[in-house]
Design a protein that fits this description.
277 residues, mainly alpha, 0% strand, rod-shaped
């Protein structure tokens, strides 16, 4: 009985081994075909729009994960049967590229969606968010700089980097435009410069409306407006102080004049009384 069981197991092992070798041989061809498909239709095709590349990466990631599980199972089976473990250079190269691209496009999607989300804030709420946004986007900038140098000419990398840099450049402009010195006349000047009409009501005006003005293209002119607004406010404050002092001075002078008149009236009464008698 023991001999029969041993023979049966041996036959099964031979069958499993034969099937494994056959499946590995087919998988080698499948891995090569997958690599060709990746190179022809994957996210690394030159000239792809970044968002199209994101969609392709997701698709090929799923396809790769299926093959990676088979790859691991076949390697374990070959080790179990004492066979030489088959290498799959196409899958190894693809795995490196998938990992590298996942870092790039994950950051790209996060940056684009986050900064686009900032545009939904009402302008009246922007000033208290500027510091928080600055810290967040600086973290994105640090992550972007850590990406492999091989990616730095890719459209997604360039778009991601420029989106980060441009937003960081706009933060001081946001703060300047949110200054309490900005009056309606200053906003009208901004509209004239940018050629955009803005509805400034608190429940209407959003950051995205300002972003649509392409303010970086007019940065110097807008900085002149904000600087002038602050100076004008300082002048207005000084004039208001002078006016306040002048009013106070007039009150004092008026008060003193009344006392003088009262004193003159008294003297006149005394004088008339003495003359009549």
């Amino acid at each position: 009985l023991a001999t029969d069981t041993s023979d049966n197991l041996a036959r099964q092992q031979v069958g499993f081994k034969r099937d494994l070798i056959k499946e590995v041989h087919a998988f080698v061809a499948d891995a090569q075909a997958f690599r060709r498909d990746w190179e022809a239709n994957g996210p690394m095709v030159p000239g792809l729009d970044p968002m199209e590349a994101v969609d392709r990466l997701k698709k090929f990631q799923q396809m790769f994960e299926v093959r990676k599980r088979k790859w691991e199972n076949y390697s374990s089976g070959e080790e179990l049967f004492g066979l030489q473990v088959t290498s799959f250079p196409e899958l190894e190269q693809t795995e490196k590229e998938v990992s590298m691209l996942d870092r790039l496009y994950s950051l790209y999607v996060t940056v684009i969606s986050t900064i686009k989300g900032y545009g939904d804030y009402f302008w009246v709420d922007v000033v208290e968010k500027v510091d928080e946004w600055g810290e967040q986007v600086l973290q994105y900038q640090a992550q972007c700089k850590k990406l492999p140098k091989a990616l730095r000419d890719w459209p997604a990398y360039v778009d991601c980097r420029d989106t980060i840099d441009n937003f960081l450049e706009m933060l001081p402009l946001f703060q300047a435009l949110a200054h309490k010195a900005m009056r309606d006349r200053h906003w009208r000047a901004l509209m004239q410069i940018t050629g955009k009409e803005l509805q400034l009501a608190d429940d209407v005006f959003k950051l995205q409306h300002l972003l649509d003005c392409h303010i970086l293209q007019h940065r110097e002119e807008l900085e002149e407006i904000t600087t002038a607004a602050v100076k004008e406010e300082q002048i207005e404050t000084k004039l208001a102080g002078i006016e306040s002092d002048w009013v106070a001075l007039n009150l004092v002078r008026r008060h003193c004049s009344l006392h003088v008149l009262h004193a003159l009236d008294s003297c006149y009464v005394i004088f008339i009384s003495q003359w009549c008698f």
